[in-house]
């Protein structure tokens, strides 16, 4: 039988509103914080494990949403070589939420290995919303665990498409004329109508001139008789 003590989870957020990247150190690992990034410091107090072989999984949720309907969303995961961390990238159109999860934490005052697993099956993303759960698994500990994930919003050069990893795209609606196209068609119709009027006027003008010419010729012939 194990102790039924209360576990406290404390989360603090640091916002890096610098115009340039800043280096920080966590668990003897140097991390580069990009401008306008969010760094989460997660402290978890003691937890009543039933066995020293058990682990604890901390679940974070993250989402990125757009108010546009004709969008594509995608989710991509992988490993970064330079910081020995795992990342998750959620993208909607050309906006991305980039989450970085290092593979170490501070466990009972010592540096320990942790694992990070995307749990995107828990959420149902749509074409305008990309969302997921991230499971951070920590080993057995007695007093406290410190974790240090971070997130940043990026503008991508390439928008999400049907070819993006794990993409969900809206069914494109039937093509509608834009205001510029409608204006172009109206201008074209007006121009065509103007040309048509000019042609008609010119036609009647020529016809009238021709009739006048024939009348004058007939008068001259009659005078010669």
Automatic annotation (TrEMBL):
<protein>
    <recommendedName>
        <fullName>ComC supersandwich domain-containing protein</fullName>
    </recommendedName>
</protein>
<dbReference type="Pfam" id="PF22933">
    <property type="entry name" value="ComC_SSD"/>
</dbReference>
<keyword id="KW-0812">Transmembrane</keyword>
<feature type="domain" description="ComC supersandwich">
    <location>
        <begin position="3"/>
        <end position="154"/>
    </location>
</feature>
<keyword id="KW-0472">Membrane</keyword>
<keyword id="KW-1133">Transmembrane helix</keyword>
<dbReference type="InterPro" id="IPR054484">
    <property type="entry name" value="ComC_SSD"/>
</dbReference>
<feature type="transmembrane region" description="Helical">
    <location>
        <begin position="182"/>
        <end position="205"/>
    </location>
</feature>
């Amino acid at each position: 039988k194990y102790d039924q003590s209360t576990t406290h989870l404390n989360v603090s957020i640091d916002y890096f509103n610098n115009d340039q990247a800043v280096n920080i150190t966590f668990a003897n690992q140097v991390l580069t914080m990009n401008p306008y990034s969010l760094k989460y410091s997660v402290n978890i107090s003691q937890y009543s494990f039933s066995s020293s072989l058990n682990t604890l999984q901390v679940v974070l949720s993250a989402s990125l949403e757009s108010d546009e309907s004709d969008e594509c969303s995608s989710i991509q995961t992988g490993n970064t070589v330079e910081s020995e961390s795992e990342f998750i990238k959620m993208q909607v159109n050309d906006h991305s939420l980039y989450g970085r999860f290092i593979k170490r934490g501070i466990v009972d005052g010592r540096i320990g290995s942790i694992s990070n697993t995307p749990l995107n099956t828990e959420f149902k993303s749509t074409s305008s919303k990309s969302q997921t759960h991230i499971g951070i698994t920590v080993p057995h500990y007695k007093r406290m665990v410190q974790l240090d994930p971070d997130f940043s919003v990026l503008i991508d050069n390439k928008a999400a498409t049907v070819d993006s990893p794990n993409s969900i795209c809206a069914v494109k609606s039937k093509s509608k004329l834009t205001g510029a196209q409608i204006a172009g068609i109206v201008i074209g119709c007006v121009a065509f109508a103007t040309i048509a009027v000019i042609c008609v006027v010119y036609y009647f003008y020529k016809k009238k001139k021709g009739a006048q010419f024939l009348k004058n010729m007939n008068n001259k012939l009659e005078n010669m008789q």
